[in-house]
Design a protein that fits this description.
Blueprint (H helix, E strand, L loop, with lengths): L5 H4 L4 H8 L2 H6 L26 E9 L3 H8 L5 H14 L4 E11 L4 H17 L3 E9 L9 E12 L14 E6 L8 H11 L15 H5 L7 H4 L8 E6 L4 H5 L8 E6 L7 H10 L3 H7 L4 E7 L4 H10 L5 E8 L3 E4 L9 E2 L1
Length: about 350
């Protein structure tokens, strides 16, 4: 055996890897913004902070798309999960008032195949463009024996910036503030282990099956995109009516709303304020999940929550609806802790603290 073939015999074909990554450079370049100072192939990406900011504060976050990748693999369609990843990370820094500057990705696989790799990274690149965020660099790792054949791991790292005086840290939140909800597109990127168990293991469905009592397929439901709220909410950053934002991801409303509330304050969520999407109803019924756990695992149709001054809140909802945001009144901030869910058309005695 020639030395050049030794690595391939160990499971890593460098020539095949090069072929799989061919053309990725054009996708990356398509995302470059004026802050990018380095080209492709550098050991580290260079980015100049916006000169328009007087006191820029960097905000960073990292996340993945979890077992939604397992659904993408089952469907043979990796074209959506890259955008899911970017949008999730964008929302995570948006809630602190930051706009994205650049993004880094990590893709791990047992074998880097050209088609799924390109689909993954095209989704990342397209979402970076949509969010005005440069794909500054990343890593692709081929690790046979660690990842199973056909498996992919996808992780993202984002850095954004906010003026020091415009940071949303929850300190402006007061009792009496109102909660405004923005709808999700479905599960986004959380709760897929339970959703897959409900649909595939318990109900015996497959990706082509219709969701019970629905015109949509299981595939359509599970691969629905994770929305970015940046373009909708960017005009409100720095608006004194906006006191805090909460991205509703793993942990649902139950765990994520308290993260942006000061000590001594809790949230009261009025359950009649929005329609819970049918996919969550189906999961709860098929897997026999009680409502308390459902609201802690899933977003239940609420992707982002705005905590706002009650004065002008109605105008703010109207403004969001005017630019295409389906905003709705979700509840309010009150003395206490955690999240209380209140059934519609009933008194305070019916509220259920979770």
């Amino acid at each position: 055996m020639k030395n050049a073939d030794a690595y391939r015999a160990a499971g890593v074909d460098l020539a095949a890897q090069d072929r799989a990554l061919a053309g990725i450079g054009d996708l990356v370049k398509s995302t470059f913004t004026e802050g990018v100072l380095s080209g492709l192939g550098a050991f580290g990406g260079l980015f100049a902070l916006p000169g328009s900011m007087r006191e820029p504060v960097l905000v960073a976050s990292a996340d993945g798309v979890g077992t939604k990748l397992a659904v993408a693999r089952m469907a043979g369609d990796f074209s959506t999960v890259g955008a899911d990843l970017v949008n999730h990370c964008v929302n995570d820094i948006l809630v602190q008032g930051a706009v994205p500057l650049f993004f880094l990705d990590y893709v791990g696989a047992g074998q880097l195949d050209a088609e799924p790799m390109t689909a993954l990274l095209r989704g990342v690149a397209d979402a970076c463009v949509d969010n005005g965020c440069a794909l500054l660099g990343g890593e692709t790792a081929e690790m046979p024996g660690f990842y199973q054949p056909g498996d992919y791991e996808l992780v993202g790292f984002i850095v954004g910036a906010v003026e020091r005086g415009a940071i949303l840290d929850g300190s402006a939140v007061r009792a009496g503030d109102l909660l405004i909800g923005l709808p999700s597109a479905g599960l986004h990127t959380n709760g897929f282990s339970l959703a897959r168990r409900a649909f595939f293991d318990l109900a015996g469905l497959d990706l082509r099956s219709r969701l019970p009592d629905s015109s949509r397929t299981v595939r359509e439901v599970l691969l629905a995109p994770h929305l970015s709220y940046l373009n909708l909410l960017r005009p409100l950053l720095g608006d004194t009516r906006l006191h805090a934002l909460a991205h509703i991801t793993g942990g649902g409303l139950t765990d994520n709303l308290p993260r942006v509330l000061p000590d001594g304050l809790g949230a009261v969520v009025e359950l009649g304020g929005w329609r819970v999407p049918e996919e969550f109803t189906a999961i709860g019924r098929l897997a026999h999940v009680d409502s308390e756990e459902m609201y802690r695992v899933f977003n239940m149709g609420v992707g982002m929550v705005l905590v706002t001054d009650p004065v002008g809140a109605a105008d703010l909802v109207a403004e969001l609806r005017g630019v295409g945001g389906m905003a709705f009144l979700l509840g309010s901030v009150a003395p206490g802790e955690g999240v209380t869910y209140r059934e519609p058309e009933q008194g305070d005695d019916s509220s259920v603290p979770l």
